[in-house]
Amino acid sequence: MLSIKEISSMFNLKTIKERIKSLDYAWKGLTYLFLKEDSFKFQLLFSFIFILLGFYFNITNAEWFAQLGVMALVLSIEGINSAVEQLSDYIQPNYDEKIGKIKDIAAGAVMVAGIFAFVVLLILYIPYLLAII
Ligand SMILES: Nc1ncnc2c1ncn2[C@@H]1O[C@H](COP(=O)(O)OP(=O)(O)OP(=O)(O)O)[C@@H](O)[C@H]1O
């Protein structure tokens, strides 16, 4: 069991400052994704449209959780995919089969999240769409 001293050292001023600095780095990364990565921008636009749809159809809290959950999943994995692409291009700017495979795997992970998001959003919105047609 941790002592009071050990617990307080976990939350000392230096640790808190380091955490805040990490948030700053993360914010820089997010700004980069938002400004430079087309696929991230596209997913963000798509998410925004579905947020508007959520308000339009006045979806339930549980439906918001499902919608926001799949959006967070897709955007996060898209961000990691962009990082993998950047790292790959940095370590190997030339054509390289292994790099191609690594990039394909990262893109495949985005696709998995995208397929699940698509299915969740279909299940969520089909009843609302059927109700207005
Ligand atoms: N250095 C490379 N060597 C071999 N194949 C590559 C290389 N770079 C890219 N590829 C192939 O091209 C595909 C697309 O790579 P790229 O980095 O352009 O990703 P993208 O999905 O087009 O990027 P973005 O997310 O910016 O649209 C990869 O999945 C891989 O199959």
Briefly, what is this?
With 133 residues, this protein is mainly α. Helix content is 88%, strand content 0%.
- State the name of the first-level CATH class of the largest domain: Mainly Alpha
Principal-axes shape call: flat
Bound ligands, each once: adenosine-5'-triphosphate
Number of domains: 2
Biggest beta sheet attributes = none
* Number of helical segments with 4 or more residues: 5
Strands, total number? 0
Instruction: State the oligomer.
Output: single chain
How much beta, percentage-wise?
under 5%
Arithmetic mean of pLDDT: 95
Helix content: over 70%
Question: Which class do the helix and strand fractions yield?
Answer: mainly alpha
- How many whole angstroms does the radius of gyration measure? 20 Å
Order of helices and strands: HHHHH
CATH architecture of the largest domain: Orthogonal Bundle
Low-confidence stretches: none
Topology-level CATH name of the largest domain: Helix Hairpins
**Termini separation:** 62 Å
InterPro entries: DAGK, DAGK_sf, UDPK
Pfam families: DAGK_prokar
Membrane topology: Multi-pass membrane protein
Keywords: ATP-binding, Cell membrane, Kinase, Lipid biosynthesis, Lipid metabolism, Membrane, Nucleotide-binding, Phospholipid biosynthesis, Phospholipid metabolism, Transferase, Transmembrane, Transmembrane helix
